[in-house]
Design a protein that fits this description.
By secondary structure, the chain is α/β, with parallel strands linked by helices. The chain contains 13 helices and 14 strands. The strands form 5 sheets. Strands 6-4-2-7-9-10 form a 6-stranded parallel beta sheet, sandwiched between helices. A two-stranded antiparallel sheet has the order 1-8. A two-stranded parallel ribbon has the order 3-5.
Length: 433
């Protein structure tokens, strides 16, 4: 239903000058292509070396579209749910195999139309919240449903920069005593698509490649030739081809070195999606790595020398914490409003591929029990259910607020009926672990 509204808004914006903006963007495409060089301009290019700028798609990569077109097609997780392990994986890619303490904040590379500000990710978004290491008690309750409350693990002395604010140069300096700046999402440096791309996957991919070139050619020219990019996308639209296919062969201006270290492509379960194949690193192209879960992605990243073994362990812990909160130990879902059985099954398989030690499992279980979503489920089950059936109550208290049993993420109000929880919800959420 949203796209008819967007079409009407687009028409109004075009009359007011947005059409001119789109025309400028198109004109710039030819300029970028002439400035950025592909591998064909050289007889030999070198792999990319330097600090890493992570560039990530949003829908079906960072968070699930819930299978709602035109955002995406993945219905394994519910809409707006952040994929388990994604945030920690991004941290580890930014740090690299040597676990650097001076890093670049990740930026969004989305096909969402740039002209619609309300579709952009802002600082108050659960996506931005998921990339913050600090727990904020004022985070919205719905973030528990979206997996935005399982915070990342970062060193206390990490220093993070935005690439467009001279970040490449600042990371390379490694100056001691710099003011600590928190890791998080680079909102201002994020890039978006064009409305006229709409659902044309080729146009979407070409626009992302244009934005990729801009990182090196326009906004961050200072020392950008000494840095590298890692792109994370999915195979549901144009991220694999043409976007990653062109990115992996891009040569940084003034060098004979590739601009990309690797492209990671999330393999979706939806049908009627474009063909996408993994690609090994070659003398003239970076690798394209396909994965199902972010634990799979972390393991493959280590195999390619992009992150450390300890980093894989941290991503595994993040995935395991999500699994213990939202899934049952048999690989089925405890929270169908967040993840379906298939999602839990995928995580279970990834976790069982390399089972942790007993001590590691006990530590993860303790971490999971202390998260806000787990504590919310416990309070909800205690006050809204008798075992696995509803007790008929309409409200429950959690962290000094009163919520509805019917929807555990909604506070009470005069506009909402305080219905009791359903037996099905009690059965799924309140199974003993």
């Amino acid at each position: 239903m949203i796209w008819p509204v967007l079409l009407a808004l687009a028409a109004a914006e075009c009359e007011d000058g947005s059409l001119h903006l789109l025309q400028q963007k198109k004109a710039r495409r030819s300029t970028l292509v002439s400035q950025g060089r592909s591998h064909e301009d050289f007889t030999k290019v070198a792999p990319c070396s330097g600090p890493v700028q992570v560039l990530t798609d949003v829908d079906d990569t960072f968070m699930s579209s819930g299978g709602q077109w035109p955002a995406g097609c993945d219905g394994v997780y519910e809409k707006h749910v952040i994929y388990p392990g994604f945030a920690q994986f991004v941290v580890e890619l930014a740090r690299g195999p040597e676990e650097a303490l001076y890093v670049l904040r990740p930026a969004i590379f989305s096909a969402r139309p740039e002209s619609f500000g309300f579709l952009k990710v802002d600082h108050n978004s659960p996506l931005a919240g998921a990339l913050k290491p600090e727990v904020d008690p004022n985070d919205p309750a719905i973030w528990d449903q979206y997996n935005a409350e399982l915070k990342i693990e970062v060193p206390e002395d990490m220093v993070a920069y935005n690439y467009q604010d001279g970040g490449f140069q600042q990371v390379l300096k490694h100056t001691e005593g710099q003011k600590l700046t928190s890791f998080g999402l680079n909102v201002a440096g994020s890039k978006y698509g064009h409305f006229d791309d709409f659902v044309d996957f080729t146009k979407i991919g070409n626009t992302k490649y244009e934005n990729f070139q801009e990182v090196f050619l326009e906004e961050a020219a200072k020392d950008s030739a000494k840095a590298c990019a890692i792109f994370i996308g999915d195979d549901g639209q144009g991220d694999c081809n043409p976007a990653s296919e062109k990115m992996r062969k891009f040569v940084k201006p003034g060098t004979q070195e590739l601009g990309m270290k690797a492209a990671f492509i999330h393999q979706l379960t939806c049908s009627d999606k474009p063909t996408c194949e993994a690609a090994e690193a070659t003398p003239d192209a970076a690798p394209r790595i396909l994965f199902v879960t972010y634990l799979d992605a972390a393991r493959k990243a280590q195999q390619h020398g992009l992150i450390s073994e300890a980093a894989v362990g941290r991503v595994r812990s993040a995935v395991d914490v999500f699994f213990q909160v939202y899934c049952d130990e048999d690989g089925t879902s405890r929270a169908p409003e967040t993840v379906g059985n298939l999602g839990c099954e995928q995580l279970w398989k990834a976790l069982q591929a390399e089972p942790p030690s007993k001590e590691e499992e006990e530590e993860t279980s303790e971490d999971a029990a202390g998260t806000r979503p787990a504590r919310r489920f416990e309070a909800w089950c205690l006050h809204c259910c008798n075992g696995q059936i509803s007790n008929g109550r309409g409200t429950y208290d959690f962290e000094r607020k009163t919520f509805r049993c019917y929807n555990k993420y909604h506070t009470t109000s005069m506009w909402r009926v305080n219905w009791s929880a359903g037996n099905g919800a009690c059965h799924s959420h309140c199974r003993s672990k």
